[in-house]
Design brief:
heterodimer, A: 316 residues, mainly alpha, two-stranded antiparallel ribbon, 13 helices, B: 361 residues, 5% strand, globular
Chain lengths: 316, 361
């Protein structure tokens, strides 16, 4: 019981940043924009969030800065793909490559007096047990003895689901990604919505990065995100573009992380290098499984206009 | 109301063809300059030092060509796959697996098969072949998953990078670690028969492998039916199917060659530079290959020149790390900025901006 509790507890903790990033990417992709810059936005959020928290001595300032930086990267992606109609795949890759480089650069410069950030400790989010709820056996520890950002995630997921499937703006959002021409004809501003949700997706990616550098593994190290942005992009497919299902996927990956930790804590003889492969192999396995189980209807739930630039004057 | 509007160009004038990419490059450098000013460095000093460090003098130039060698091969690898709109982001992992396979041959074949003569004439082709096959195999799995099940290749090729890098780190820190290495991680040094001959400094025959591959791909694209099929699939997959082109076969074939080229880059790195399997093989050449390929507009011969330019950025970046104490990752930032600005600028060669006066409707 103890083991299950500790694994589930870490799974939720480790899955939180994945959920933020995945939900953000779902919103962006639902609007028809593929954002492969997620990894770059996450790592930029992580480094700037940590630096801002360090200098202001306030973790919330860190979160705000991380989200603002993520949002501005989202804005760049929107500008490149929506206005300048560049290839969404390559623009996203450019952002990830540039973002990773910039994060590494800033990581060596943003410490006090232009010193490196590596090895510094700053403010962070600590566990805040929710009175009453946290005393429930097992579930209390797993769900209600966490930091504030995890609690924010509990609110975000149902909210995103409700917004997407039950509200009028949510309907517009889905319509823009399915059939921008028809949506435009209805008087919805396709460009404005695509900009909006690309920026929102970026902000959530920044938040995801902030949870890593301010709560999960507090501090800054090179390559802190370790491909989580890419895993989140795979989770969007796993989740069939539904925020609710994203939670399942993120918990699965969080659980794998947790088991890795347990094994290492218990002094396993398996090399850490081999053990660390599991999330990446799992991503591939999960993608293959989704494709198989959904009965070869590939791209189930994928917005029909995903990845296509919208141009009022051209028929597609 | 006055609005700005993009209007499609019917023809692109020559001055636009040149001025747009050059202007984009300048803007990217200006963006990098803002960052440099922010950290208190004069951008002109920094860029001057970078150019000096990369192209000023014989030593600098050879080092730039050394850095360009893997970039040419990964750039070609990406260019081939992207021509078909197969998003192979896995050149990094394919390069690493190629390096691992070449190292495996150099380290263990002499003992396993002592009858094989220990001569470069025998060993270098064997290592190259092993690297080609290992890279190809690493690319084959995502290719098969894509062509048979439709699994998103961006994610699979990318995940395979992480697996390959961890596998290679495992090898040189554990089973392949040199017992006589004083505890330092890394394999034993290869015998001299497994070294690519050098021209000058660290510049070796690897660059000929790169240039040769570029010519080969150029021939494929411009002269062969296969090249035509690849372009057709990239332009319009449905039309290609109607024309009787096998998309399945082409995905597999293109990925085998594409990943094989990246594998060759790994061979050139271990056999031409490090002479052992150690840290430093996975330094992002696979990812930079994407930038090289795109800036070269997926054209094989242009890949060579773009690779040399980008390599200059890296060598120059290393230089200003030493002289100005700037993080070498500045070159990575500039890379991303250049790609982004060139991408964004491209619309100005396809469209022109028109100022429209009036009520707009």
């Amino acid at each position: 019981m103890d083991l299950v509790e500790s694994i589930l507890s870490i799974a939720v903790f480790a899955g939180t940043s994945l959920i933020f990033a995945t939900v953000g990417e779902i919103l962006t992709e639902r609007a028809g924009v593929l954002n492969l810059g997620l990894e770059g936005m996450m790592i930029m959020g992580a480094v700037t969030g940590f630096a801002a928290a360090l200098h202001s001595d306030n973790a919330y300032v860190g979160v705000a800065v991380a989200m603002a930086v993520g949002a501005s990267f989202g804005l760049i992606h929107a500008l490149a793909t929506i206005t300048l109609r560049t290839d969404q795949v390559v623009a996203g890759l450019a952002l990830t490559l540039g973002g990773t480089g910039l994060a590494s650069f800033l990581g060596q410069k943003l410490g006090p007096g232009g010193s490196p950030l590596v090895g510094m400790t700053g403010p962070r989010f600590l566990r805040v047990p929710i009175p009453g709820l946290s005393e429930i056996p097992v579930l209390g520890e797993v769900l209600f003895n966490k930091d504030q950002l995890v609690y924010a995630m509990y609110i975000l997921v149902p909210l995103a689901w409700w917004y997407l499937f039950k509200t009028r703006p949510g309907l517009h959002l889905r319509a823009v990604g399915e059939n921008p021409q028809a949506t435009d004809a209805l008087g919805v501003n396709v460009f404005k919505l695509r900009y909006l949700y690309t920026i929102v997706g970026g902000a959530l990616a920044g938040l995801a990065g902030a949870h890593l550098s301010l709560a999960y593994t507090p501090g800054w190290t090179e390559n802190l995100t370790g491909g989580r942005g890419w895993i989140a992009i795979a989770l969007v497919i796993f989740a069939t573009w539904n925020p609710g299902r994203a939670v399942l996927g993120a918990l699965l990956f969080g659980g794998v992380n947790a088991i890795q930790f347990r094994l290492q804590a218990e002094g396993t003889t398996i090399s850490a290098n081999l053990l660390n492969m599991t999330p990446y192999i799992l991503t591939v396995v999960v993608l293959v499984a989704v494709t198989l189980f959904e009965g070869f209807r590939t791209r189930v739930g994928a917005p029909a206009a995903l990845g296509l630039p919208y141009n009022r004057e051209e028929r597609t | 109301m006055t609005t700005l509007k993009f209007e499609k160009r019917l023809t692109t004038p020559t001055y636009v063809k040149w001025s747009v990419p050059v202007g984009s490059l300048m803007l990217a450098l200006a963006a990098g300059g803002v960052l440099l000013i922010a950290v208190g460095v004069n951008p002109f000093t920094a860029y001057g030092a970078m150019i000096e460090g990369a192209y000023g003098g014989r030593t600098a130039l050879t080092e730039t060509l050394v850095r360009a060698t893997p970039l040419i091969l990964t750039g070609l690898s990406v260019a081939l796959a992207f021509r078909m709109l197969f998003w192979n982001i896995g050149a990094e992992g394919q390069l690493v697996m190629g390096g691992v396979a070449a190292s495996g041959v150099a380290l263990f074949l002499p003992e396993a098969a002592p009858s094989i003569p220990q001569s470069p004439w025998v060993y270098l082709p064997l290592m190259g072949l092993a690297a080609l096959l290992a890279g190809a195999l690493w690319g084959l799995v995502p290719a098969l998953l894509k062509s048979s099940l439709g699994v998103n290749e961006i994610i699979t090729t990318l995940m395979f990078n992480y697996v390959a890098i961890l596998f290679y780190q495992y090898l040189f820190t554990d089973p392949w670690k040199d017992p006589a290495g004083f505890g330092f991680p890394g394999s034993a040094e290869f015998g001299q028969f497994a070294w690519l001959p050098r021209f000058s400094g660290r510049l070796n025959f690897g660059i000929l492998v790169g240039v040769g591959s570029a010519v080969f791909l150029w021939l494929v694209f411009s002269k062969s039916k296969w090249g035509y099929e690849i372009a057709l699939i990239g332009e319009n997959e449905r039309a290609a199917r109607y024309a009787g082109v096998s998309v399945f076969r082409n995905i597999v074939l293109v990925m085998v060659v594409s990943a094989g080229l990246a594998g060759l880059a790994g061979f050139a790195e271990v056999s031409g530079i490090s002479h052992k399997l150690q840290q430093g093989l996975a330094v992002g050449n696979g990812f930079s290959g994407i930038i090289v390929a795109w800036l070269a507009k997926l054209r094989p011969l242009r890949v060579i020149w773009v690779a040399i330019l980008l390599a200059g950025l890296f060598v120059g970046g290393d230089q200003i790390q030493i002289t100005l104490g700037l993080p070498a990752s500045i070159s990575q930032v500039l890379q991303g900025a250049i790609l982004l600005f060139v991408l964004g600028g491209d619309i100005f060669s396809r469209y022109r901006l028109r100022l429209i006066r009036g009520d707009g409707s």
